[in-house]
Design goal:
The complex is a heterotrimer.
Chain A: H1 2-14, H2 24-33, E1 39-47, H3 58-65, E2 67-76, E3 79-85, E4 90-95, E5 99-104, E6 109-114, H4 123-126, H5 128-137, E7 144-152, E8 155-162, E9 171-179, E10 185-192, E11 202-210, H6 216-219, E12 228-231, H7 233-244, E13 253-254, E14 257-258, E15 270-274, E16 277-284, H8 286-298, E17 303-305, E18 308-313, E19 316-322, E20 328-333, H9 337-345
Parallel strand pairs in A: 6-12
Antiparallel strand pairs in A: 1-2, 1-11, 2-3, 3-4, 4-5, 5-6, 7-8, 8-9, 9-10, 10-11, 13-14, 15-16, 16-20, 17-18, 18-19, 19-20
Chain B: E1 6-17, E2 20-26, E3 29-31, E4 35-40, H1 46-53, E5 61-66, E6 69-71, H2 75-78, E7 82-85, H3 97-106, H4 116-126, H5 142-154, E8 160-164, H6 172-187, E9 191-196, H7 199-205, E10 208-213, E11 216-222, H8 223-226, E12 232-236, H9 240-246, E13 251-255, E14 258-262, H10 266-275, E15 282-285, H11 290-298, H12 310-313
Helix pairs in contact in B: 3-4, 4-5
Chain C: H1 2-10, H2 13-36, H3 59-67, H4 71-90, H5 92-98, H6 103-136, E1 144-145, E2 151-152, H7 154-185, H8 189-207, H9 237-264
Antiparallel strand pairs in C: 1-2
Helix pairs in contact in C: 1-6, 2-3, 2-4, 2-6, 3-6, 4-6, 4-7, 4-8, 6-7, 7-8, 7-9
The chains are: A alpha+beta, B alpha/beta, C mainly alpha.
């Protein structure tokens, strides 16, 4: 009896999922159109990427190296909530029309962030629906293929594979399972780079999903009495840093990747590439760069040459380029180490702090 | 006596622990009104047999009938009519003797709640603990614990008492008291099954005897029959050689001042000796002692392990 | 029979000493925190402990979180491990069975008394936590804040605290079932208790290992901390339901095994 009970979940998981003969392009279109499908869900993401970034950017780095458990309620594109659930607390992001509230239980603090043109990755970006749609959105038709079906969160899901064709790409493939009925991406696996045992570098999946509109009271947020209310500093600081740096004209292409146009983003920051192959370039003031350089130099797997120091964790690459006059360039993205070196060669010198 | 109803009857009772046959094919026969002495050396299987009678140990083979019911199946029906003292008393040390008895009484069927207090008082008086008060059992002496265990066995006025070494830890006066108590209970109709290694105790109390040796019942009979006169007379005399001369051919043995003479009538032997002018200081019918009977039946002590035999027994 | 076992358990000084010692740690923690006004850093220390400085009504939960990982399982396995093995060691088991108490009845009575102990212990810890919380910390009359940042009324907090207490009690039933099962296997109460604790320590260790992730959902300690989920808004039922189901399976299987073993074993103690 014990054996039967133990085997039960595995048996249910192994139930064959019914496949449908949907072509890849149509499936992608369905996934992209699912932006209006409301849901409530429970998701888990597991990342095997540990970047030695020191004290800065820790929250973003933790997301990619740890197991993150999330609860999500989605009413529309600007009315949703994602909670990162931990054993002793919770960090909730509540989106409304003007921006987001970030609630941190253990600090008893609520932080307000106005909508930013450019932000560091946060937990809501790891939700399979958000990540799946983002990674599928710019995939070319010849990069897409079908890979059968699976059961995810108790639902039939159709598989879709993206194999990037860019030479600079470090991501070898991305598998997205899309809900057969409503097109919501249910599971995303990103492969590439050196990972333990050849598993995915990032695996995020719904474990439970309910396709119904959650109540507005669930996604709304009012700071509780007595809580510490403030503006989010980490994001603002980064943007400030970027704005303070004197904009240096960035080249239109780097390492064979085209520059993207981001309205409202500071001119000093450049984003290159397309789909799953992206490279961000930003100037870093001397103070911040020095700390990061020490950390990176100490990491055993980092590559140090005349241009700077670079390191890869799975498909993620990071490079600190000496830009002269006390300033540095920070390059980060899903590109190979060779592409990072090539991009560094194409960068102009920074002008340092104003 | 053998016409009475069977109180304990086992058929081919076997208990094996691993390769060791602790009890090996026992047919016990205890009848109503008996005071049955269950004799055996330490390790001969007495305790295991007692536990099987009470359903604590399940037999490997064979059957147990207790008060007419099969054990352990009929335990709930027959055990309330049985009082037992198994391998020493046991009680909750932090509670008083009175509280222990009340808990034991409440733990099973066949003890009315209304009469509990009175019954506990009665049995404490019977075993001589009436004045012990609220003292916790952990402050009791060994003899007091033994008395408390006996009180527990008597609590429901049992038809059958199964007692395993009941006088352990008691001083001579205590042993005497308990013996009188058991005899009194027996007179009022209680059958007593007494397991012991003390021959004297059994000889003084019992009407029937079973002897256990290495798991086998080597003897089971009326005590009176086992120690019946042998048909010879023991003569005490300062001059045994003259006995031989007077009763030629009838002398079985000579030993110091004792002579054993064939003849079941001491008066006739006396007359013959007196006629021959032999001085006689004592004269009695010869009876075997229980010790002699048991030693003849059981052989060596069971916890003696001789070289060469050791491996086979372990 | 059940009444007899309950009487035995709760008239025993050791039972109350155990419960008393169990409460010593949360009280000590509260005194130290009240004196130093230092809360654990966010993400460290037991759940809710960082919140009690501003809201003492959460102290019952903090107290449970403090004793849950070690003290509470030790107390429960001490009592449950003693249930049958303790009687065997004291020699009273043979008298109970010859009384006759009936093996199944005795086991059921032991089970009920152990469960009663679990419930009483958890409630006492929460009650002491409540008193301590009111004495040493500020109390917000309006209620408090859920983990999700929504406000809870006092009634909400009471209701969810009661649910959490119930959940912790159910989690401890699994421990009790392990200890009771081992208690029927051995005549040594210490061995039964250590056996149950060994299972729990092994379970906690395996839970932290990625290599054991395939068996993680079946580990008895896997969902213990889910009582925290009652304080999310809306309540996160997923782990709570799984935790209840898992404990139910453990309790049923282990008690079945304990029954099968106890009713057929030779009582030689």
């Amino acid at each position: 009896m014990v054996a039967v009970l133990l085997a039960l979940p595995a048996l249910i998981g192994a139930l064959p999922a019914s496949d449908a003969a949907a072509p890849a392009g149509e499936l992608r279109a369905r996934a992209l159109a699912s932006v209006d499908v409301p849901f409530s869900g429970y998701a888990q993401s597991a990342g095997g990427l540990s970047l030695p970034v020191g004290n800065q950017l820790t929250s973003a780095a933790d997301l990619l190296s740890d197991r993150t458990t999330m609860r999500a309620w989605y009413r529309s594109a600007d009315d949703w909530r994602v909670d990162v659930v931990s054993a002793t607390g919770e960090t909730g992001v509540h989106r409304d029309a003007a921006g987001t509230w970030t609630w941190q239980y253990e600090q008893d603090a609520a932080a307000r962030t106005e909508e930013l043109p450019l932000a560091l990755p946060s937990a809501p970006d790891l939700l399979p629906r958000a990540l799946g749609r983002r990674l599928l959105s710019e995939a070319a038709d010849d990069e897409l293929s079908r890979i059968g079906a699976a059961r995810v969160a108790g639902r039939d899901a159709l598989g879709l594979r993206v194999v990037p064709t860019d030479e600079a790409a470090s991501v070898s493939r991305v598998d997205v399972w899309v809900d057969a009925a409503r097109g919501v991406p249910l599971r995303v696996q990103v492969y590439g780079g050196q990972t333990d045992g050849g598993g995915p570098a990032l695996d995020t999946s719904f474990l439970g999903l309910d396709l119904g509109t959650p109540a507005a009271s669930v996604t709304a947020f009012t700071p509780p009495p007595g809580a510490d209310v403030r503006f989010d500093q980490q994001q603002e600081d980064l943007l400030d840093t970027a704005r303070r740096a004197v904009a240096v004209p960035l080249p239109a292409t780097l390492a064979g990747l085209d520059r993207r146009v981001l309205p409202g983003a500071p001119g000093a920051v450049g984003v290159y590439g397309r789909g799953v192959t992206l490279l961000a370039v930003a100037p870093l003031p001397g103070r911040a760069a020095a700390g990061l350089r020490v950390t990176l130099n100490r990491a055993p797997e980092s590559v140090i040459d005349g241009r700077g120091v670079r390191i890869a964790a799975g498909p993620l690459g990071l490079m600190l380029v000496d830009g002269g006059r006390g300033g540095s360039w920070l390059l980060a993205g899903t590109v190979s180490l060779d592409a990072l070196a090539a991009a560094a060669a194409g960068l102009p010198p920074t002008r340092g702090d104003r | 006596m053998t016409g009475n109803a069977a109180v304990i009857a086992t058929r081919g009772l076997v208990k094996r622990f691993g390769a060791v046959r602790a009890v090996d094919g026992i047919d016990l026969d205890v009848r109503e009104g008996d005071v049955y002495g269950f004799l055996g050396a330490n390790g001969s299987g007495k305790t295991t047999t007692v536990r099987m009678l009470l359903g604590l140990v399940l037999p490997t083979a064979g059957t147990v009938q207790l008060l007419g019911g099969p054990m352990p199946k009929a335990a709930r029906r027959v055990l309330p009519r049985v009082g037992a003292l198994i391998e020493g008393p046991a009680a909750y040390g932090h509670l008083s003797g009175r509280a222990n008895l009340a808990l034991l009484d409440a733990a099973g069927p066949g003890g009315s709640r209304r009469t509990r207090r009175a019954r506990v008082g009665t049995v404490l008086e019977q075993v001589g603990l009436a004045g012990v008060g609220r003292r916790p059992v952990k402050a009791y002496s060994l003899g007091m614990r033994q008395r408390l265990g006996l009180a527990g066995a008597l609590l429901r006025r049992p038809e059958l008492l199964i007692l395993d070494e009941p006088t352990n830890g008691l001083d001579p006066q205590g042993i005497h008291e308990i013996r009188d108590l058991l005899l009194e209970l027996h007179r009022s109709g209680t059958t007593v099954f007494l397991s012991s290694h003390l021959l004297a105790e059994v000889e003084q109390l019992c009407s029937r005897v079973g002897v256990l040796d290495r798991g086998r019942l080597v003897l089971q009979d009326e005590l009176a029959r086992l120690t019946a006169p042998t048909g010879a007379t023991v003569v005490e005399t300062p001059d045994p050689q003259r006995v031989r001369a007077a009763l030629d051919g009838r002398v079985l043995s000579l030993d110091g001042t004792r002579a054993v003479v064939r003849g079941a009538d001491p008066a006739e032997v006396n007359a013959a000796l007196v006629a021959a002018g032999v001085p006689v200081t004592g004269l009695a019918l010869q009876r075997p002692s229980l010790e002699e009977v048991v030693l003849a039946a059981a052989g060596t002590s069971a916890d003696r392990v001789d070289a060469g035999e050791g491996r086979a027994r372990r | 029979m059940i009444a007899v076992e309950l009487r035995k358990l709760f008239r025993r000084p050791r039972t109350w000493v155990t419960i008393g010692l169990l409460n010593a740690l949360p009280v000590l923690v509260a005194v130290l925190m009240a004196l130093t006004d230092l809360a654990p850093r966010p993400g460290e220390g037991p759940a809710f402990l960082s919140a009690v400085l501003t809201n003492g009504t959460l102290y019952p939960l903090a107290a449970l979180a403090i004793v849950l990982p070690l003290f509470l399982p030790i107390a429960v396995s001490l009592i449950a491990g003693d249930a049958v093995a303790g009687e065997a060691q004291a020699g009273t088991l043979r008298y109970l069975l010859a009384r006759p108490a009936g093996r199944t009845r005795l086991l059921v009575a032991k089970l009920v008394s152990v469960f009663a102990f679990v419930l009483v212990t958890v409630v006492v810890v929460a009650a002491v936590g409540y008193v301590v919380g009111r004495l040493f910390f500020e109390v917000q009359p309006v209620g408090g804040t859920a983990l999700s940042g929504t406000s809870l009324t006092s009634a909400d907090i009471v209701e969810r605290t009661v649910l959490a207490i119930g959940y912790v009690a159910v989690s401890m039933l699994g421990v009790a079932a392990f200890a009771l099962f081992f208690s029927t296997l051995t005549d040594s109460p210490l061995a039964a208790m250590l056996g149950a604790l060994a299972v729990l320590i092994a379970s906690s260790l395996l839970f932290t290992l990625d290599a054991a992730s395939s068996i993680a959902p079946y580990l008895p300690t896997r969902y213990w901390l889910a009582f925290v989920d009652f304080f999310r808004d809306p309540i996160l039922w997923r782990d709570i339901v799984r935790g209840l189901g898992l404990q139910a399976v453990y309790v049923v299987v282990l008690l079945g095994a304990a029954w099968a073993n106890f009713t057929t074993k030779d009582v030689t103690s």
